[in-house]
Design goal:
Two copies of one chain form a homodimer.
Chain A: H1 7-17, H2 24-36, H3 39-55, E1 57-58, E2 65-66, E3 80-87, H4 90-99, E4 104-108, H5 127-135, E5 140-143, H6 149-162, E6 168-171, H7 187-195
Helix pairs in contact in A: 1-2
């Protein structure tokens, strides 16, 4: 254990080193950087972290994190209310938003079913998803969960819950990534992409 | 620019991304980690950073950072008051303390002379070093500054200022690092280590 000449520095380093991916050396570098900087910077950082932690809300409709009761996506009148995209967490919302390929609304489950880690359907926002489909005229539900066993389990669970609803249920396509050489794709992905082949067409 | 669904999250990410070595993606990961954690963790982090920034002092004797007016090293009666080790900054104090090879006191300059970056001798704690030597019975001053042009310039400047004092002035040895194969040492280091060769002796 490194012995710092200051307990205050030690405390700051310990707290920083608790963050994921930050070890003792990086934490010390960050702490010394803050010490050398103008005092207002440390204050701005602390204030921003506390404000985020204390004031952030979850959107009452889609459960995405939000500054208001209804998030900016759900309250945007230009989004297509007929399509719901079901995702694991808010990082996936960001990832899909960056593609600029989806104009519908989201539903954030807050995880996927994972018996090993003790995450059951009741821990996820599935009841509110069913509720949303019952109360709204939704034409399509896109399941955009991770391509893992847990994601597939959750897909299947949600599919069974929703199959009596008239909404069409789809999942995002899985296959070889754009730009990838076939020889580097793993066998399962390549196999799936052959089984799920689509008709070749030239769009004019 | 990634569009976050929350301005509060955006602010926290922006502040975190200002830290050295932390980009937008890492900042987002840290912010989301704090969001998922227990609220008291974020509070502890913010409090530790602010307390460090606001309450930390510089030791009045050696200018090392400290929780009190006199740091734990300077106030330790078991340290040898006759030897002063002059270093660039507090990281060097820690590095030397980790070796457990030095039992004297330190003097932290707070930098080295660097005309390109506009750091002149007046910006460093050199006056207080001279003062310390005049007021105390110090037998040896070890110059442990970086082995760079700036370090050498500072060594030379301090040497000229102190040469009328009866304290012996030494510098740390430079040469091939312990455990290094000679073929990987750079020419200048290897050349210096040949010129500064020492008599081989077996300690009994």
């Amino acid at each position: 254990m490194i012995e710092y000449s200051s307990q205050l520095l030690q405390n700051a380093v310990n707290e920083l080193a608790r963050l994921p991916g930050i070890g003792n050396k990086t934490a010390l570098r960050l702490a010394l950087h803050l010490l050398q900087e103008d005092g207002s910077r440390t204050e701005a950082l602390s204030r921003a972290l506390l404000k985020m932690k204390n004031d952030i809300l979850l959107c009452k409709k889609c459960h995405n994190i939000s500054d208001n009761e209804i998030c900016t996506i759900c309250s945007n009148p230009r989004r297509d209310e007929n399509i719901l995209c079901v995702v694991e967490d808010m990082r996936d919302v960001m990832a899909i938003e960056r593609t600029a390929c989806f104009t519908g609304l989201y539903h954030v489950l807050g995880g996927v079913i994972n018996p090993v880690e003790g995450i059951s359907p009741n821990d996820l926002n599935i009841t509110s998803l069913i509720d949303r489909l019952e109360k709204n005229e939704i034409q399509e539900v896109i399941l955009a969960l991770p391509a893992t066993i847990e994601g597939d389990t959750t897909n299947f669970y949600i599919y069974r819950k929703l199959k009596d609803n008239k909404a069409k249920i789809t999942t995002i396509s899985k296959g070889v990534a754009i730009g990838d050489a076939l020889e580097y794709a793993d066998e399962i992905t390549l196999g799936r992409s052959i089984l799920n082949r689509t008709t070749f067409e030239i769009k004019r």
